[in-house]
User: Fold this.
Amino acid sequence: ELFSSPFPDYSLPGLGGALSTSLAGVLGVLLILLLTLLWARVLRKR
Assistant:
């Protein structure tokens, strides 16, 4: 295994099934959006 998942099985500990999965998905999308915006800013400065 190269990387360990920050949200194993797409769930957050301490929350119920559907809510946990939904929040893990939303957090994942927001993280990718943030990384994409930061990368675009870095490339724009070049």
In short: The CA atoms of residues 5 and 12 lie 11 Å apart. DSSP finds one helix and no strands in the chain. The mean pLDDT is 82. The helical segments are 17-45.
